[in-house]
Amino acid sequence: MKILLTGANGYIGKRLLPVLIEAQHEVICLVRDPRRFDVSDSLQGKIQVVKGDLLKPESLPDLPHDIEAAYYLVHSMGSGSADFETAEKASATNFVNYLNTTSAKQIIYLSGIANDAHLSKHLTSRRQVEDVLAPAKASLTVLRAAIIIGSGSASFEIIRDLVEKLPVMVTPRWLNSRCQPIAIRDVMFYLTAVLGHADCYDRRFEIGGADVLTYKQMLLQLARVRNLKRHIFTLPVLTPKLSSYWLYFVTSTNYALARSLVESLRNDAVVKDSSIEQLIPHKCLSYESALNLAFTKMEQNMVVSSWKDALVSGTIELNFMDFVQIPEHGVLTDRQRMRFDRAPEQVMDNILRIGGERGWYKTDFLWEIRGLLDKMVGGVGLQRGRRHPSDIRAGDSIDFWRVLAVDRKGDRLLLYAEMKLPGEAWLQFKICREADSNYLEQLAAFRPDGLAGRLYWYAMLPFHFVIFKGMAHNIIHYREPLRDKILPPTQHSQ
């Protein structure tokens, strides 16, 4: 079957793509920027990548018209846009207008469970998108899910952050709302099982895991899985705004996503219509089994996708790949060039492992302070970490940086700053192989925005003097303890 996959760069899309390929489908991936759509070698040559922006209908006429089905996996939760509902409606409208010119027979949309009368803006927008997609010529199949539990999912990472960082939690009363969490593995099953299933055409289904729990019970159960003793107290005095700030500072989420999650917590997310069980019988995993599976994938370094690598996890602009070349003029720089005698591959390996648990090779406490300051002014901070200890793709997030380019053959890594700054910043690592010796060239570049940007750069110079020279030296000389050895990444894990 020839399938159009929108949201191919997102958490769900990256998981679904290899499953569709394994089922021998022909997949066309619609992405806004092919430069940051980095797929595994095993998928190269098996997919077609097309560029298009659903918010720009003029970019869609050149898309294929002979498709048979389409997945609509486009969401703006946590994007930070004050008018994301309008954007989501426009995106869905443009998608329908395009799809009506194709031979597609089915649209599959992943939505959210929303049975209460008064819904959050996020859940209201999901329902609105369903209504926009429904009149399309192709039949609509909607799968409504609650919290999705899987390695790298936003919900799982936020719950894990709370439990692992806070022995005692004072939480809002909404933690007593009920939820029916579902494992990412079961979501993948349903997304593929309804494909081409005629009895699922023009139907809206609710899917959920084996357990119905309050959010408080979900936190405590994760604590038991991790052998942690945690105490949770709920108070009626925490307003949505205070609760959002609490989530923002404690977890790796941004404020917009924290606000959307807190607003949604007021609504129970429990399956009331289980009709899909009659059409597609399937036993879903329990919450505890989903947690154990997620932690197993993390321990084996088999996280296929992470919400942190989606653009909604930070504050960066959609066109950030346009900055893949450091400007030659109007920038302030700190350049370190050091000769080394080790094998270049070993130094490059150290470069590719920067950030996350490995840290920044010099004065990590200063980086942590900078991350906290970034959080205080609305930035992403250091808590996002990285998807994998060594595997890097263009578009990945590494703490408060975004990967612009990674060239293993050319021995180069280029990062773009996503922290709040009065200007733009790059950090580049490059190994220069010369006839008689090898050098590590480390370049920090900053394009200031007016006087404030210049004052910021010069105020940071004393710290740069301490950090950057030591960082380059330690990257060259760092030797990995045996316990840090990892398994190679796998592309089919869930």
Q: What structural keywords apply?
A:
alpha/beta, Rossmann fold, Alpha-D-Glucose-1,6-Bisphosphate, Chain A, domain 4, 2 domains, seven-stranded parallel beta sheet, six-stranded antiparallel beta sheet, 19 strands
How does this model look, in words?
It is a single chain. The chain is α/β, with parallel strands linked by helices and 494 residues long. It has 2 domains: 2-307, Rossmann fold (3-Layer(aba) Sandwich), CATH 3.40.50.720; 314-484, Alpha-D-Glucose-1,6-Bisphosphate, Chain A, domain 4 (2-Layer Sandwich). The protein is built from 13 helices and 19 strands. The protein has helices at residues 11-22, 84-99, 121-133, 154-165, 184-193, 215-225, 240-250, 255-264, 276-279, 287-299, 344-352, 364-376, 450-477, and strands spanning 2-6, 26-31, 47-51, 69-72, 106-112, 139-145, 148-149, 168-172, 178-179, 182-183, 203-207, 213-214, 231-235, 332-340, 397-398, 401-407, 412-417, 423-433, 438-448. Strands 3-2-1-4-5-6-11 form a 7-stranded parallel β-sheet, with helices on both faces. α1 (11-22) crosses α5 (184-193) and α6 (215-225) packs across α10. The two termini are 23 Å apart. The model is unreliable at 484-494 (pLDDT under 50).
Helix content: 25-40%
**Average pLDDT level:** 84
- Distance between termini? 23 Å
Q: Strand pairing plus helix content: what structural class?
A: alpha/beta
Report the uncertain regions. 484-494
- According to CATH, what is the class of the largest domain? Alpha Beta
Strand order of the largest sheet: 3-2-1-4-5-6-11
Tell me the layout of helices and strands.
Elements: E1 2-6, H1 11-22, E2 26-31, E3 47-51, E4 69-72, H2 84-99, E5 106-112, H3 121-133, E6 139-145, E7 148-149, H4 154-165, E8 168-172, E9 178-179, E10 182-183, H5 184-193, E11 203-207, E12 213-214, H6 215-225, E13 231-235, H7 240-250, H8 255-264, H9 276-279, H10 287-299, E14 332-340, H11 344-352, H12 364-376, E15 397-398, E16 401-407, E17 412-417, E18 423-433, E19 438-448, H13 450-477
Parallel strand pairs: 1-2, 1-4, 2-3, 4-5, 5-6, 6-11, 7-10, 8-13
Antiparallel strand pairs: 9-12, 14-19, 15-16, 16-17, 17-18, 18-19
